Amino acid sequence: MIYHRPQSIDEALALKSSLGQRARFIAGGTDLVVGIRKGRTTVDSFVDLSRVPGLAGLTRAGDTLRIGAACTHAQLEREGITALAQACETVGGPQIRNMGTLGGQVGTASPAGDVSVALIALDAVVELASVRGTRSMPLADFFVGPGRTSLEPDEMVLSVTVPTNRKSVFYKIGKRDAVAISVVVAAASVSPSGDVAVGLGCVAPVPFRPRKSEQMLRGHPLTSERIDAAAAMAASEVSPISDHRGGATYRRAMVETLTRRLLRTLADTPYEGLLSVAMSHS
Ligand SMILES: Cc1cc2nc3c(=O)[nH]c(=O)nc-3n(C[C@H](O)[C@H](O)[C@H](O)COP(=O)(O)OP(=O)(O)OC[C@H]3O[C@@H](n4cnc5c(N)ncnc54)[C@H](O)[C@@H]3O)c2cc1C
Predict the structure, then answer these.
(1) Model confidence over 174-217: pLDDT tens digits?
(2) Which string of DSSP letters, residue by residue, matches 184-221?
(3) What is the 3-state secondary structure (H, E, C) of 139-164?
(4) Distance CA 98, CA 35 (A)
(5) Domain ranges, ordered by start, for the chain
(6) Which fold has domain 167-276?
(7) How close is the Cα of 158 to the center of ligand 1, in Å?
(8) What gap in Å lies between CA 67 and CA 153, rounded to an integer?
(9) Substitution candidate for ligand 1 out of 108, 137, 157 with most atoms within 8 A of CB
(10) 29 alpha carbon to ligand 1 midpoint, in Å?
(11) Does ligand 1 come within 6 angstroms of the Cβ of 210?
C-alpha cells in the first residue's frame, strides 16, 4: 500500500482524481483501518487528510457553523451545539474522539453513526469537492445506503454546515454507557420559526429523517397530543432489522419513545437549559 500525505486540499483532490477508486482518503482511520483489518476493505493507496491545512477549521458566520471535514469529535464536543456535542460525547472513548473526524463519520455512512444522526436532525448541509469544483446538498440526501454515499470516486467531503440558532437534543440507547454501538439513536431540533427536524439511527438503511412525522409538526405548536401523534408516525416510517444488538420490534417501539421524549424536551426546555439535558444509554 502506498501512503500519500498531501500538503493542500488541491493536492489531495488531484491525487484522488489520478489514483482512482482503490485510493482511499484516510483521516482518523478509526473506521477504515478496522475495515482493512477485518478484510472488508481493500486499499491500494491512502491519501491522508489528517494534516491538510484548512480542512480542520471551524468558521462561524451569522447563524451557521461551518465544520471542516477533518474536525474531530473531541473538537465538536466543545462547540455548544447541543445535539452535536451530545452525540460527539458518546462516540467511542477519548482516544477515538481525538482521532475520529466528521468527514470520516459521514464518509463511512453507517446507519448507526451517532454524529450523522445529530447532523441530519440539525438540517445540516454537506459540501463536496473534486478537481471539477464543489457542490452542496442536504446531508440527509448524501446517504444512499449502508456504507454508500453520493460521493463520486474523485470527490471528498470538504465541510458540513449546521445552524447555530436551533434548539436541539440527542439521545442514544446502547448496550452500555461507553464504547457502545447504538441500538437506537435519535436527535431532534427546532428552528426559531418552529420547523422541527428529527434524525433516527439504526432503524433504516441510512441515518433517517421521518418526513411525514416532521410534516405533522410543521407550523404547529409542540402540544402533547401533536407530539404523541408525530412520535407514532415516526415509528411507522422506519424499517428496522433484528440483529445481535436488538430486535426490530424493540427498535420500532424505541423510535416512538425517543421521538416523544426528544420533542417534549424541546417543547419544555429553554435554549440555555439544553446543554445540561441528561443522557442515558441503557
Ligand atoms: C472503538 C471504536 C468505537 C467507536 N464508537 C463509535 C460510536 O460510539 N459512535 C459512532 O458513531 N462511531 C463510532 N466509531 C466509528 C468512528 O470512530 C467514526 O465513524 C469516526 O467518525 C470515523 O472518522 P475517521 O476520521 O476515523 O474516519 P476514517 O476511518 O479515516 O475514514 C472512514 C471512511 O470515510 C472516508 N473519509 C474520511 N474522510 C473523508 C473525507 N473528508 N471525504 C470523503 N471521505 C472521507 C474514508 O475513505 C473511509 O471510507 C467507533 C470506532 C471505533 C474503532
Answers:
(1) 988 788 899 999 999 999 889 999 999 999 999 999 999 999 99
(2) EEEEEEE-TT--EEEEEESSSSSSB--HHHHHHHTTS-
(3) HHHHEEECCEECCCCCCEEEEEEEEC
(4) 19
(5) 167-276
(6) Enolase-like; domain 1 (3.30.390)
(7) 15
(8) 22
(9) 108
(10) 6
(11) no
